[in-house]
Amino acid sequence: MSDKPATRLFAAEKALLNHRTGLDGKPSEAPSPATLDQVMAELRALRSTVEQQSVGGQGDVDLLRGELYDLHRSIERTKSEISALNTTDHNPRQQLDAVIADTEKAAHRILEAAERISGEAEKMLEKAKTAEITEGLEHIVAETVAIFEASYFQDVGGQRIRKVIDFLEYFDQRLATMIHIWGAQDFDQPQRRASDRAGDDKAPDADLLNGPQLDGEGMNQEDIDALFD
């Protein structure tokens, strides 16, 4: 006796077998057209089900491939943008530090000049001969006090710029961490693409808009004077 499992028959197949073979094993009459139509309908339904399952599975695979490709492109764009930011040229922290230093120097010069003016005015007050001169000198002293008060902007501005510098340092650390996670070698090619794109977007007169150079960079006064010799 064979151990092969019995094949499950569809209802239409059972009906066809019952028409072909009677209960006594003798051949029966040919199946009716209605029976054949039922068999064909069963086969068409089976074929449709198989095709739908095949097409549906392929559609899911294509959808997954598309999503993975979009994710890959997004990651590459992110790497490219990070590479464009990760540059030592025109370091914004150094530029802002220079702003703080230059502003502090200018504020100190203004305060020193105002202090000298106030001192001279007070000396002249002691020797003033008329009320008109006295009033004018007192007005000068009052204006120098206003200069002292206005110079407070340097301290407040420096504190605010310092907060921006701290944020840039924090942001730079986060970028360095992301680059380390992805691998620095993966940023070589995206960085070139980002720099090329930045060059294309550069304005024709962008070199004229750089503003003052940092210490040790650009042309000094001696170089400029030499151009006119």
Task: Please provide a brief summary of the model.
This protein is mostly helical. The chain has helices at residues 11-20, 33-85, 92-126, 131-150, 152-182, 188-200, 221-227. The longest helix has 53 residues, at 33-85.
Strand content is under 5%
Low-confidence stretches: 189-195
What is the number of helical segments per DSSP (H or I, 4+ residues)? 7
Helix content: over 70%
Radius of gyration: 44 Å
Largest sheet: none
- Between the first and last Cα atoms, what is the distance in angstroms? 117 Å
Please count the beta strands (DSSP E, at least 2 residues each): 0
> Which structural class do you get from the secondary structure elements?
mainly alpha
Average pLDDT number: 71
- Based on Cα principal axes, name the global outline: rod-shaped
H/E topology pattern: HHHHHHH
List the helices and strands and how they pair.
Elements: H1 11-20, H2 33-85, H3 92-126, H4 131-150, H5 152-182, H6 188-200, H7 221-227
Helix pairs in contact: 1-2, 2-6, 3-4, 3-5
